[in-house]
Amino acid sequence: MMVGKEDLGLSLSLSFPQNHHSLQLNLRPSLANSCSSPSGLTHQKPSWNDASAPSDPNSESFRAETRSFLRGIDVNRLPSTVDCEEEAGVSSPNSTISSVSGKRSEREGNGDELEIERACSRGISDEEDGDTRKKLRLSKDQSAILEESFKEHNTLNPKQKLALAKQLGLRPRQVEVWFQNRRARTKLKQTEVDCEFLKRCCENLTVENRRLQKEVHELRALKLSPQFYMQMTPPTTLTMCPSCERVAVPLNASSTVDPRFRQLAQTHHRPIQINPWAPATPSPHGPPDALRPRS
DNA sequence: TAACGGTTTGTGATTACTTCA
DNA sequence: GATGAAGTAATCACAAACCGT
């Protein structure tokens, strides 16, 4: 994780436990790729139906062609002719160059929302008319407002989306995409946190398991010794440990008790460290949100 | 120290698929 | 069961930050 860089994205809704300063997220897919998803589904299928498109959508040459094709086209070019056509339901030969393309835009492309989209688009293209525009990056203010909104509700209803878009001077689709990405990345990060938590749980349970096995061994060894029965305190003096509900031997028990047994009795009621975030020292932090019992 | 090029990270956007009313 | 809206998962592409030379 970069230190000097602002983390506007994912830090707000996540509480990191002690000793867990940062988590590295590498969302970058392998470049050589063809990486199909684990489920074997293909996600690379382009949606254009242009007859001139390369035959194998997954081939490297196809990608190269696509890239070189896109290179001359501004990805963030705001809807001018092509996009307006798309809003009207006309399909583009290359949907990736349009920020309002696809099914979603078709369903959104009506009524007030469309009006706002058009208004926003007009406004921005006026500003950036002429030269090739770089990939859009939201301003700090825009990001901050989106973050605030996300903290309040991580999904938006259409009204909220429109209002937010209007407030930020963005298209509703952009707001929607921002929220989608934000949810996805929050979830991803939470998954990593949960994974880390479970790993620590597992480690602690392994340690505890070893300790208990050792204890069983020791008890078995004592059980085999005849002295064990002779020197045992009468059952009436046994008490129950309130925490672990095992039979405990009072520390002031008869001095005639086998010292090995007494030592065992004194040591076996150590508190069991349950909190995986603090294997050595007690931590005020509990488990990650996702692992807390939900009400 | 500045400049430069390669690498890594963050993020806007798209697409295919799933879920649910 | 069919359909459409809204969501998720996976991925791409690019800008910016980082880093070694």
What's a quick, concise take on this entry?
The protein is mainly alpha-helical and 295 residues long. It has helices at residues 60-71, 81-87, 102-108, 111-127, 140-152, 158-168, 172-224, 226-230, 259-267, and strands at residues 239-240, 247-248.
Question: What's the arrangement of secondary structure elements?
Answer:
Elements (H helix, E strand, L loop, with lengths): L59 H12 L9 H7 L14 H7 L2 H17 L12 H13 L5 H11 L3 H53 L1 H5 L8 E2 L6 E2 L10 H9 L28
Antiparallel strand pairs: 1-2
Helix pairs in contact: 6-7
The protein binds a DNA duplex (21 and 21 nucleotides) through helix 1, helix 3 and helix 7.
Pfam families: HALZ (PF02183), HD-ZIP_N (PF04618), Homeodomain (PF00046)
GO molecular function: DNA-binding transcription factor activity, RNA polymerase II-specific; sequence-specific DNA binding
Organism: Durio zibethinus (Durian)
Give the overall pLDDT as a whole number: 54
Sheet with the most strands?
2 strands, antiparallel
Which range does the strand content fall in? under 5%
Distance between the termini: 34 Å
Oligomer: single chain
